[in-house]
Amino acid sequence: MPERSTQFFVDLESGVWxxxxxxxLDAERELLSADFLGVYPSGFATRAEHLAELADGPVTVxxxxxxxxxxxxxxxxxxxxxxxxxxxxxxxxxxxxxxxSLWVERDGRWWNTFSQDSPTIPVAAAGxx
Length: 129
What we know:
A six-stranded mixed sheet has the order 2-1-6-5-4-3. Strand 3 and strand 4 form a beta hairpin. The protein has one domain: Nuclear Transport Factor 2, Chain: A. The N and C termini lie far apart (43 Å). It is globular and about 40 Å long. It contains three helices and six strands, in the order ααββαββββ. By secondary structure, the chain is α+β, with helices and mostly antiparallel strands.
């Protein structure tokens, strides 16, 4: 049975973030499946499009994964959901977003096959008390 702890998947997800901090295109490629799909506020992105963001180097200065939750989807897939607090390269203010990442085990390896990012908004703006 493949590893299924929340920390295991936070560690895998951290590998994606570390690649964005270091600008390591190869490290990122080793974690994203060939059929990866990203769903972002700006639209859809394939693996190639996601990797292209690193063509000029790092895109993130720092990050923290907060409040991670794991949902078992099937025998060989899990959804990791969390808040990311991060500092994008070239921005003065840090940003936060909620992320859902689907990790699928194929041939003994875990691959990030899907990621959806949702920017955070202040609770008052969301109409909640």
